[in-house]
Specification:
The structure holds two protein chains of two kinds. Chain A is of the alpha/beta class. Chain A contains 13 helices and twelve strands. Chain A has a domain of about 190 residues: Spore Coat Polysaccharide Biosynthesis Protein SpsA, Chain A. Chain B has 15 helices and ten strands. At the A-B interface, helix 5 of A face helix 6, helix 8, helix 12 and helix 13 of B. Chain B: GO terms for molecular function: glycosyltransferase activity.
């Protein structure tokens, strides 16, 4: 069929060089019947009749069988259909029957290799993605995105120094993995200072070693106390310890406090690059609202989500810092959690540390820094909020379009203090209690039957009371000769019986 | 100590200078085969005289159907408006280099908005009869220094169906005039030597309104929205787009890298700005506004149309900006696109980011320097000065006024 189509096109070109003026729709009249034309007409009529009987286009089937080409899975249509006129916008529908085949309607006077008319639809034999090419495409996308970031993203991105206080507990793995993965996605240089209460432990070390980031892991001698108040105080001390490390190692960049139970968005890291000296972002507080009445939840600011309280900078009309949104603890008075395992709401402080970022140069001993920054060596614990680090709170820069964008979320969820978890969350040695599954895929291998399997099958028993019992007893007797098992599976009993027959 | 200080300062200065130099080439200059001409100013290089035709050729047609102002053939109307108030316009025909006839030949629309070309040849004939009888300039050269804007599917062949258009050929009386058309295909009857190919009209304000921040990462590899099978006119495929669009669908519908479908999303423009490659396959005609949209949104156009002639081909180096894929290579499209080295892709994106490139594809109102109107005038200016041979001796006639189908000769 491919061959005939080519022949048709060749014929078409030859005849058209004589500028034969007959347009396509005049083909039905005036064409004298050559034997080939008569033959095609008869064949076409026959295939139309068969199609009417069968209900589908019979000619397609014939050509599918005849077609041997591997590239063209959508077969070329018969020459009669090729000569079909398609009147695009006219009212008369295209007439599928009864057009005497005409030379291919290619009237280009010049030598164009582009042929007008019906072409085959080229489909390759395996039209599915090639995994190597998919990887190449992803690398191209990565490269384009890196270039975009270089051109339109932050100019001169600074290193990000993340300070995280942590300690070993059940939920540490949960929280720290989340923070770790967020940090692994950050497109800028990163240093992660992990301060661990209770000293450096292998648990934490093995967890964070998987990140591939540059980590400074230090231990803090005190252990994490059990009440939230004490805990917050200790965390503050641990953060100051982290800041002292920044000072000692003279790290240059932007310091951000990433508590291990917080959730950070990627836009946060882009936004804090805009901080000059001391910036503040809005933190969404996901306090456990299970115990709060609806009346208590009040709206804070017009643009904020009325349900989720937000801590952060508040701006006036001219986008200058005017005050602070803090967390209102009054509705929770007396109902908040005191100890770690309380089921009441865990409240944040007035202003959480994680909502503030500072330029590491503020922490250096010398170098030019603004005079409103207190020296961290002079402070010692008992800092309520990061604003105590500065003498004048009005120098803080509001970030995230003046605090309107919430870029991270605060949450404290902890298990009971005495909850057990396997060290490093590896189950080794394998657990001792094994429960077999109800059905094994291999009917001939006998499963082990512990005693509690009977109640499960007890549901079946009332229905098939007589037969099961008799069969059980029979199979018990018979199978005792073969194996020492009591099987109540009807399938297997049947199988056993056939074996013995 | 002091020597070290000065040495350090010198090195720091050199370092800063080199960084600044590296930062700058985010876009690249565009020079085509005609040179660095996208920013040329045509004012002063040519003079255009606009014939005053009765409003039945232009204004009345537009009044009957104002949809003509926003469809992809609207370039003819905007070109007229631009020339009326442009500094290249002259009211003295004696000093004009080019003559423009404002006929809105594509403004006869069906209820669904598609232009019917059946009356256009008669309209053009009657207009030319008018200008040749009222002014002597047509007969002087038989139209060789006249230009017409024919943004039709197949240009001045005045038909939407390719076989019929090829049969008719370019309207005989327009054979000597310069045609400014959107259709371009090499070795095709409907493209004359010396025609100027222009981009189709795409609404500039709409596209500007839907721009997204430039740092939004481009995460779609290949993007296309449009028909693959024209079920009304060609249900089996193979006719529409010479089977190329159907081949794209059949080969890549399961490929996650290809975001292709027939949907009409409201975020079409935004999606294009998040894509690296945008397919621009042929349809019933090889050109489409997708090329303009791809250029404006910085998406590399993948042109699947054999022998196509792209807009302003002598001023814009399309080979370096877009990717050309032969129709027979469509099954290997994914191999072709993934094997382009990333540096080449980045270079293409830099060329596309050049603002003069985007401006050259648009028809803004009012006109801005470097836009498509100016590129058309630049193209016309590059054809000057006219050769002496176009001026006919008195009484000499070259064109055959009665050639063409009988239906065209009826008066309009």
């Amino acid at each position: 069929m491919k061959l005939s189509a080519l022949q048709q096109s060749y014929l078409g070109r030859r005849s058209n060089s004589f500028r034969s003026s007959g347009p396509l729709d005049s083909s039905s009249d005036g064409a004298f019947k050559s034997p080939a034309a008569v033959f095609w007409l008869v064949l076409h009529g026959l295939s139309c009749l068969i199609s009417l009987l069968l209900g589908f286009r019979f000619s397609r089937l014939v050509f599918l069988l005849l077609s041997t080409s591997s590239t063209y899975t959508s077969p070329f249509h018969s020459p009669t259909e090729l000569a079909k006129t398609l009147d695009i916008r006219s009212v008369i529908p295209a007439d599928p029957v009864g057009n005497v085949p005409l030379p291919f309607p290619n009237k280009t006077a010049t030598n164009s290799r582009v042929v007008v008319g019906r072409h085959g639809i080229r489909i390759r034999p395996w039209p599915h993605p090639n995994p190597v090419e998919v990887m190449k495409a992803h690398r191209i996308i990565e490269r384009v995105q890196t270039e975009q970031r270089l051109q339109f993203g932050v100019k001169d991105p600074r290193k990000i120094i993340v300070v995280t206080p942590t300690y070993v507990r059940t939920f540490q793995s949960l929280h720290l993995t989340g923070v770790m993965h967020s940090l692994m996605l950050v497109p800028y240089d990163l240093v992660w200072i992990v301060v661990e209460a209770g000293g450096v432990s292998n648990e934490t070390a093995s967890l964070i070693a998987k990140s591939g980031l540059r980590i400074i892991h230090v231990g803090f001698s005190q252990r994490m106390p059990n009440s939230w108040d004490e805990r917050h105080k200790l965390e503050t001390k641990m953060r100051l310890r982290g800041l002292r490390i920044v000072r000692e190692k003279i790290l240059d960049g932007i310091v951000i406090f990433a508590d291990d139970s917080n959730m950070h968005s990627m836009e946060l890291f882009d936004e804090i690059q805009n901080a000059k000296w001391f910036g503040a972002v809005s933190v969404g507080i996901l306090a456990n609202s299970a115990n709060i009445d609806e009346t208590v939840v009040e709206k804070r600011g017009e643009e904020e989500n009325p349900r989720m309280p937000v801590q952060g900078p508040a701006c006036n009309v001219s986008n200058m810092l005017a005050g602070w949104h803090t967390f209102n603890t009054l509705p929770f008075a007396g109902k908040s959690a005191v100890y770690i395992d309380d089921r009441a709401t865990v409240l944040p402080r007035k202003l959480e540390w994680s909502g503030f970022v500072l330029n590491s140069r503020l922490l250096w001993k010398d170098g030019d820094k603004p005079e409103w920054m207190k020296d961290i060596d002079t402070l010692d614990g008992d800092i309520e909020s990061p604003l105590d680090l500065v003498k004048d709170p009005s120098v803080v820069e509001p970030l995230g379009s003046c605090g309107r964008r919430v870029l991270l979320w605060w949450l404290r969820v902890e298990a009971r203090a005495d909850s057990k978890f396997p060290p490093r969350w590896i189950i080794d040695p394998p657990l001792e209690v094994t429960v077999p599954s109800k059905r094994t895929p291999w009917p001939d291998t006998p499963p082990e039957l512990p005693s509690h399997k009977k109640p499960v099958i007890g549901i079946q028993e009332p229905i098939i009371k007589h037969t099961t019992k008799t069969r059980t007893s029979r199979s018990k007797r018979r199978s005792k000769r073969k194996h020492d098992e009591t099987r109540t599976d009807r399938r297997t009993t049947g199988f056993d019986k056939t074996l013995q027959n | 100590m002091r020597k070290w200080f000065w040495g350090f300062l010198f090195i720091a200065f050199g370092f800063v200078c080199s960084i600044a130099a590296e930062r700058n080439p985010r876009t690249e200059r565009i020079s085509g085969s005609a040179g660095d001409v996208l920013e040329d100013d045509p004012v002063g290089r040519l003079k255009v005289y606009v014939y005053e035709l009765p409003s039945k050729y232009n204004k009345k047609i537009l009044q009957k159907d104002p949809r003509c102002l926003s469809h992809m053939f609207a370039a003819e109307i905007y070109m007229h408006r631009f020339l009326l108030s442009s500094p290249v316009r002259t009211l003295n025909p004696e000093e004009a280099d080019w003559f423009y006839t404002p006929i809105y030949a594509t403004c006869d629309l069906t209820p669904t908005g598609l232009p019917l070309p059946f009356k256009s040849p008669r309209m053009v004939r009657s207009a030319i009869q008018l200008i040749s009888s009222s002014w002597p300039y047509w007969n002087r050269t038989e139209g060789a220094d006249h230009f017409f804007v024919v943004p039709h599917d197949f240009g001045a062949c005045f038909h939407y169906q390719e076989e019929k258009a090829i049969e008719r050929g370019i309207l005989p009386i327009l054979q000597r005039a310069t045609l400014v058309q959107t259709f371009g295909q090499r070795n095709h009857v409907c493209l004359n030597e010396g025609s100027i190919t222009i981009p189709p009209y795409a609404p500039p304000l709409k596209m500007q309104a839907r721009q997204i921040p430039l740092d939004t990462p481009r995460s779609i590899f290949v993007y296309f929205r449009g028909l693959f099978y024209d079920v009304n006119n060609d249900p089996e495929g193979g006719y529409y787009a010479r089977g190329a669009r159907a081949a794209v669908w059949e080969n890549f519908k399961n490929n996650p890298l290809f975001d292709i479908s027939t949907e009409h999303p409201t975020t079409y423009y935004e999606d294009m700005q998040r894509a690296i490659f945008c397919l621009c396959p042929l349809g019933w005609a090889p050109w489409s506004p997708r090329l303009v949209e791809a250029v404006v949104f910085g998406c590399i156009p993948v042109i699947i149309a054999d022998d196509i002639v792209l807009p302003f081909a002598d001023a814009i180096p399309w080979e370096e900006i877009g990717v050309f894929v032969a129709e027979e290579d469509v099954p290997k499209l994914d191999t072709i696109l993934t094997s382009i080295p990333p540096e080449v892709i980045l270079r293409k994106q830099r060329l596309l980011a050049n603002p003069s490139m985007k401006r050259a594809m648009l028809f803004p109102q009012p006109a801005l320097p470097g836009d498509a109107f100016h590129q058309i005038l630049n193209g016309l200016a590059r054809k000057l000065p006219h050769q002496k041979s176009i001026y006919l001796k008195p009484g000499e006639k070259i064109l055959n006024w009665t050639a063409g189908p009988v239906g065209d000769l009826k008066p309009w």
